[in-house]
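User: I'm putting together a teaching handout on how multi-component assemblies are represented. Below are the sequence lines for each component of a complex, exactly as they appear in our records. Could you produce the 3D structure of the whole assembly as structure tokens, so the students can see both representations side by side? Please keep the chain order the same as the input.
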Amino acid sequence: MIDYSKILSSKVTSIKPSGIRKFFDILDEMDDVISLTVGQPDFDTPWHIREAGINSLEDGRTYYTSNSGLLEFRREVCNYLERRFGLSYTPETEVLCTVGGSEAIDLAMRAVLEPGDEVIVVEPSFVCYGPLASLAGGIPVVVNTELKDKFKLTPEKLLAAISDKTKMLILPYPSNPTGGIMTKEELEKIADIVRERNIIVLSDEIYAELTYGKKHVSFASLPGMKERTILVSGLSKAYAMTGWRLGYACAPKEIMQQMVKLHQYAIMCAPTTSQYAGIEALRNGDEDIEFMKESYDQRRKLIHAGLKKMGLDSFEPEGAFYIFPNIGKFGMTSEEFCEKLLYSKHVAIVPGTAFGESGEGFARISYAYSVEHIKKALERMEEFIEALK
Amino acid sequence: MKALDKKVLHLIEEDPRLTADNLAVMLEKEIGEIKEIIEKYEKNGVIVGYRTLIDWEETDVESVTALIELKVTPSRDKGYDKVAEKIYRYSEVKDMYLMSGGFDFTVIIEGKTMKEVALFVAEKLAPCEGVISTATHFVLRKYKTEGVIHGAKAAEDKREKGILM
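Assistant: Of course. Below is the structure of the complete assembly, with chains in the same order as your input.
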């Protein structure tokens, strides 16, 4: 008999599976659940973008592209980043087309981390940063952001987390799950801190297009930051293209060369069909973004007002498509609260602890759902909260 | 038209179930202001009505739709409108448009059976004063109505459950 415990890599086996798997298992087995858990747009990819993918197949574009991705795609990424965020990147040497933003995050960490390097992970946040940092040999150092700061990374918290082993800071704004954003002034304070040190900033800007009121500021656009920033983004959230698995990274060419090497051996290239669709999206998709964003914004207001009315306090999210209400006053853990809501009212929301310990006392509600769906969910949640009072 | 008015009309065109209260929240306006806008357009006829799109083909209720091309002679004093009025007054007529091109009116008729529609055309439309000729085209399948694709199940969520992103 083969002894798998001796076969499997301890680096991988030591990574804990997500704690809320149990919650999702229950959810899977239940019928008639109104779910507000999904972290992806509810729109189909706009037709002209799908058509570009289909046309590329009809034209027989069924081959590998260059490792970094079609030059035309990278050019469009650069045009787009300049047009939308005032960034200036060179398509030939500073841009890589990846399989979603997640691959780009993985590559960035593996390209720069040495064993024992510390990686500052801002939480609550998307679940991948800590495990990927560990796999790359780094040591995640968690910074817990707080409601009172609207879940922003404050200079004080950052300074407290920095040691002489700090190699990388991950900036996940606009934030999944909190809906928090960082303004230019707030980012400048972070820039002042990293400027003096040899710290690389991995800026995950996958939700950059989804901010409400204030325009997103890209960290690399701040003076002197481009040389130390790895910008990671993708087309999933902005253009409703999650299933296409299309992302990109932008970084100084010294870093990019190393990332391309990893990508070349592990992936070859991102799906060709997706790249052709991506060119169309980046070139002609600004209006799609505006349309979807306005729709999310309306739902954001609806759900924020609805939660407030029933006595579930939450700060008004300014980005992404999540709201992160505080459920602490009901004397239950996040997981208890969400399970009870699921069992008694068949409404599913995600316990805040799925996104780090500092998510305790909160729950993530996605509003990437139709208004009708949201209204129904709010009605049921209101009954639930009434019964708790 | 004011941008806000346009937004309100677009939103209720998509979903007439949105209440004034919902709209006020979504657009960050006072509920009174929203109510005023809706009333204004209800009164002046911009909001023509509130209907539900029902795909009768998906039920066991018999239904058939036909598109009729009509050529007419406009009436001497009131032109096409007078001829049109005599036709659109029939409850069988669902939509009616004055057209440019090779014929004058498009009339959409809904009936229970093809025979019923054919009889209506022969007995009611064709003899109408001013009507020169009719050409009846039966609808075999509806793909999209009022911007909504049939059979697409509006409520279907194609996203897989249980993926934490």
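A couple of points students might notice: Chain B has two domains: 3-43, 56-141. The helical segments of chain B are 3-14, 20-27, 31-43, 79-88, 114-125.
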